[in-house]
Amino acid sequence: MVQQTVRRRWLILGFVVLIILLLLLLKAYFPDLTAWINPKASKTEVMDLVRSHGLDAAVILVALTIVCCMIPGIPTSVIGIFVGLCYGPLFGGMINVLGNASGNFLAISLLNKVPLIHKNKQQNHWIKHLSTLKHPQTGLTISYMIPFIPSILVSYTIQQLRMTKKQQGSIVFLGALPASILYACGGDALFKGNIKLGVILLAIVILFSVFIFYIKKDHQKRVV
User: Fold this and answer.
1) Which of 3, 4, 51, 59 has an alpha carbon within 20 to 30 A of 111's alpha carbon?
2) Is 52 exposed, middle or buried (0-12, 13-18, 19+ CB in 10 A)?
3) What global pTM score does this model have?
4) Domain range summary for the chain, segments of one domain joined by +
């Protein structure tokens, strides 16, 4: 009962911070939104405005990504694509990596003190798979790259396996790198409106399908 109360309070706090960050983001991008719905504004003007944001908006987006990593059920993929749309593949990728890696690392640390995962979710099939991998460090790194495996479940598994800080840092950084860059490239392609977007999204689907196959095969080997 005490754990449930603590969990509820932390989740409420997380959602409050999330709403505050979303309002700050809306304030920062309100001129862009106004220009976008203004029929008199040219496409070039809107595109220049979207790409004109600097460090302040980047800090908000990093903080938003970090908070989403620590709230169960909140995906970061949409934020990652939005970051790529606003900052391009290079700086957008860096922002995404910083946000996802920091958020997942903080989530692991927080899970040592706060029961963010409901006890019913602790028997989740993904947690069972990830906890019995033959090569846990590789499998957990890959799991962070897969959008439909909640990152909080991966962080919970890492915390349960009692990995060292060095191992945790390696897993969250390498795990954040590919997807963060792909999301940024996808957002940039969406911004430019070219065919690259379709190719990138197709590559993501194929890549993640291969990763899921690897995780399941590795789990089967461990069980056998």
Assistant:
1) 59
2) exposed
3) 0.81
4) 2-223
